[in-house]
Amino acid sequence: MGIIGVAKASQLQLAQPLLTLVWSVLLMNERLPITAPLTAVVVLLCIVATQRTRFKHL
Fold this sequence. Notes:
Elements: H1 6-13, H2 16-28, H3 35-57
């Protein structure tokens, strides 16, 4: 966190559910309901939006 900053690190942690979904499918051959990846994509889009907004204000 010291290198990338607390705000960026906390937003990066929001991507963890998507990584968990990917690894569960790849490593454990799990089947996911369609809502799980869709929700993860929405979260990622929110992360991208907040990062862009943050950089425009700097």
